[in-house]
Model the fold of this input.
Amino acid sequence: MRPISRLGSLGLGIYFWAFVAFLFVPLVVLVIFSVNDSTIPTLPLSGFTTRWFHQAFSNGTLTTALVRSVVIALAAGVLATAFGIMASLGLLALRGRALTLALAVLLLPLVVPYICLAVGLLILVQEVSAQPTLVAVVLGHSVIALPFAILVILPRLRSLDPAMNEAALDLGASSFAALRYITLPLLTPALVSSGIICFVTSFDEFAIASFLAPSGQPTYPIFLYASARTPALLPEVIAIGAIIIAGSLLLVVLAEGGRRWAERRLIGANVSPAGALAGQDGETGAPVFATAEPG
Amino acid sequence: MTDTQDRGKGQVSLVSLTKRFGPVAAVDSIDLEIPSGGFFSLLGPSGCGKTTTLRLIAGFEQPSSGRVLLDGRDMAGTPPSKRPVNTVFQSYALFPHLRVFDNVAFGLRRAHVPRSEVQRRVGETLDLVQLSDLAARKPGQLSGGQQQRVALARALVLRPAVLLLDEPLGALDAKLRRQLQVELKQLQTRVGITFVYVTHDQEEALTMSDRIAVINHGRIEQAASPRDLYEEPANAFVADFLGVSNLMDGSVVGSAGDAAQVRLANGFTVDVGRGDISRRGEVKVVIRPERVLLEPTGATGPNRIPGMVTNVVYLGSGIQLAVHLASGDTITALVPNSDDDTASAWSPGVSVTCHLPANALRVLGDGVTAHQPHSGAVT
Done:
């Protein structure tokens, strides 16, 4: 690489910090105003308080909405990951044009605007049950999360030596036992990643939930959207936002720690650290079971 | 599958076995008898169909036509999990998340063998492959050679009638490979299970096998004992694939008692005492380098052709010479390093007379001799 001139490195530094600010200032602002002792979020700051947090948590509608969203996201995360496993196993057997076609269909929700999907789902739900339900929200979220699950699970599945499945069958295991005892345990890190990504996808999804959630049972993004237009509730909304940010950070740390722990448990010692954060694509740096393969 | 000591003798018969992938026949109408309790190798260049043959026996591939019989029982419709056959994979395919012990116990647990017996049999098998100390390790913490033994133990613990090995030593370095060749052969003798061993390494096959089938383009070129394959190759492919062979073109011009008279290029005629000596017309004649005798230039007698040394390779135990014969052929001769002068006596440009003894020269057939492995032995 060519050495960078002083001016260039200064410019690069400015660009870097501007970019960081662009990413994180909104979050920092949110956290600052969540402890600002004023009903209107404007400068100058008027003092430290935690009362917005107390108020937010004593607001029954808000906490219920939050719990509702967590339950929906858990269900959607588990469902999408389960479907993701099955879809990936199927895709593994496909080759050539059939693979391209199947993959395109399965990943379609990535490019279809959620709002269109939401309208379509609403029409479908009304045809089937006449009443929007939270179950419909879970199903809708599973649909949009499925592509993420596949994108995380399939590469990991492809990285496994296909002879391992054959070895399990050869040793007398049924296809199901081979899946249960060999393939699924080896997929664990990818399944953890998939579950978290699908959870997050569902947790903050607005369009589908707003169409399909029954009135009176808002998920937390719907509640926030509605509350943000009520000035009196704004500080509470900000407080909740700050908590969600903290929660997300914790989730990321726990997920990465958990993934590494699972990887270590799976393979034994000497796990290359290359899988860190890149873990979202399910690749471990150097799968030990590939070492035996010549060339 | 329960714990049966007598799961059959382990005799495999392949009957007109064919496997086509699209228009290509990877295995082309193979007939083969693999006797029970022996070390049988499928030897051939890569892509010759030997691994496909193994996978057909294991049940991972279904034959396009023909049959796989195990102790007389047709295996069609029996899935791999129900065949009394286990496989050692080329990549070992160890389960990286399971300890060595659990890898070996995997098959027993699937068969619902009682816990105490699992303990005992896994322990015995790990002893057999000298891995008892490493039972608690994960495969990733083992060396290549150790992983290979785990794969072996994992298959052997089920006491299969036949053990299939797909180039199991391919990923190991040369020294370890030679050591494990000996160990594998000893192990096979001790457990008495039929081993079917796929390899492209002729030296490996010759070292370990009781019998070898040489495969090329999905067909069996010759199936015989290592000695017969080396000494009595049925055709040019077998002669060339096993060891170094000097192949010469010639035409049969007559016969003299128990030998055919073969005219090589440039008018040299030699007596050929072995092989298909009743053949007429254009033939291929073969002689092994170690059977070529070098005599001082000017020596006379039958089967002697003058030549000139063109290349000398010092091998340690011997010296390999390339000799350009007056007949136009360039042959390889192997001279044992028997005294101090041997190494210095030869250098490029030295004239020499090559004696090609009649009882070392063979007329090769060109047919495929799967059914009559000894058809070449008409001497």
Remarks:
- Chain A touches chain B through 31 residues (CB under 8 Å).
